[in-house]
Amino acid sequence: MSAGSFAYADVWQTDIITISIVDNNYNTESRINSIQYTITGENIHKEKYAGWNQALRTLNSTAPKLKLVEEKGDVQIKLVNYKSVKKHSGDTKLESNYPGVTSKGTITIYNINDLSSAELQMLMRHELGHVLGLGHSINATDLMHPTIPYYDSYISQANLIEIKSMYG
Ligand SMILES: [Zn+2]
User: Fold this and answer.
1) Distance 4 CA to ligand 1 centre (A)
2) Deepest in the core among 36, 67, 89, 168, taking most CB within 10 A?
3) Beta bridge partners of 45
4) What is the pTM of this model?
5) Which residues line ion ligand 1, judged by CB < 5 Å?
6) What is the b/e burial string over 99-136, where b = at least 16 CB atoms within 10 angstroms of the residue's CB?
7) Superfamily assignment of 11-167 in CATH?
């Protein structure tokens, strides 16, 4: 499954990035729960994380945490049931008000009706990595590889080391 996105080196200057899901026919409770799991999910095993906040808590870093909110968030997630023109399964677009500082973003997840919960989680984990500022990895077994490894799509120490290098 291919997830296209830009590699941004920009960072957020906030403690919490608020995230909301656009209200449409596709934001079902089960999908909201899947997305929530990629934020607050527990360790899969030692040093592999299902949720970004659990992973980020292990770092002594100023990197922000993520929070799913009802009102419009800094980042909006759009679940849509059409194909991406670039044939991506997901995309993240980030905007900055000041050079080097991310201020808002949009995640689009395409072909939502064709995705299992596991696939939606995999894509969201990857796109939230972009939101935090991660670019693509050349390592085919890494969550941030452009083609996400289906059987190992968790947040790793390598991802966290990169975040630490960006945020300190
Ligand atoms: Zn990507």
Assistant:
1) 4
2) 89
3) 48
4) 0.93
5) 3, 5
6) eeebebbbbbbbbbeebeeebbbbbbbbbbbbbbbbeb
7) Collagenase (Catalytic Domain) (3.40.390.10)
